[in-house]
Amino acid sequence: MKRLNTVVSPKIERNRRAVMRPEAIRQLIVIHLLFLVFTIGGCRREVTTNRHEVNQAQLQNVSMKEKEALDRKKRSMAQLRAERIPVNEGLPIIEIESEAKFRSTEQVALRAMALCVVASRAEGLDENMTKKLIADFRLSETLTPKEKEFMFNPNPSAHDRSQFVWRYECCWALLWALGFVEDLKTPNSICDVQLVVRIIRDHGRDDFLKKARLRSKAEILDTTDLVYRYHWAVRDAQLNGRKSPTGLNPDVVMERHYVLNWLVGYLGQEWDDVSTDT
């Protein structure tokens, strides 16, 4: 069989070429668009990588901060377990050194002196001697509104006395923070009240301020974290009708938690408004 040859006339060829030109153009457009997509895609991947690197750096910074607080939490829980005190592993971490709003050494020293006078008044110090001590230690500007209301009340109630006399415990914790007391010890018994009074009385205002040396932030935060977890154990026992674990004194624990929260600037609260969340 003879193979048939197809003959294309010049007119038809021209028409076919005319049809081919738009297709070629479309192909070029597609190729160009693909080039742009790949180019832009590469840029996006590069940007995404940079953002990922930034996010990783931020996460690393956050993780370093959390590590400080988590390590502190772990040490506190280990001590609680060693003392056979219940542990709440879900209890949050506390502030870290770079974020805590610590009170100054002078603020802490003035507060310690004020608390000693307040507690002495609650213990039975008469009004005239109270006023003399306030003047001698120049504490009129340091006393809070609630303290002034109590201090200058000629007949404070038994309830108020019983509340304010526990400020000796706050003062004791501040004496520890300022270096006048070596060891704070487990909060299972009341502080040495006579020693509290003697330290402040014998130093006087100026010498007390001069010799006060605030402990390191790390040491104070370690103790704050530990007391925070002590307080949870005490409250959990109270809520469930149990005795405080291993003889912890609930009032001593609460006062320490209160004063340490103030010392580290928890929530920026002033003395009369400090909370002891657990």
Largest sheet: none
Helix content: 55-70%
Distance from first to last alpha carbon: 102 Å
Rg, nearest Å: 36 Å
> What percentage of amino acids are in beta strands?
under 5%
Domain count, please report it.
2
Mean pLDDT: 83
The unreliable regions are 1-22, 27-55
- Helix tally equals 9
Rough shape?
Answer: globular
Structural class: mainly alpha
Q: What is the chain-wise order of helices and strands?
A: HHHHHHHHH
Give the tally of β-strands.
0
Looking at this protein, list some descriptive labels.
278 residues; mainly alpha; 9 helices; 66% helix
Would you write up a description of this structure?
It is a single chain. With 278 residues, the protein is mainly alpha-helical. It has 2 domains: 87 residues, no CATH class; 111 residues, no CATH class. The N terminus is likely disordered.
Short description:
This protein has 278 residues and is mainly alpha-helical. The protein is built from nine helices and no strands.
Summarize the helices and strands and which ones pair or pack.
Layout: H1 10-82, H2 105-123, H3 127-136, H4 145-151, H5 158-164, H6 167-177, H7 193-211, H8 217-239, H9 250-263
Helix pairs in contact: 1-8, 2-3, 2-5, 2-6, 2-7, 6-9, 8-9
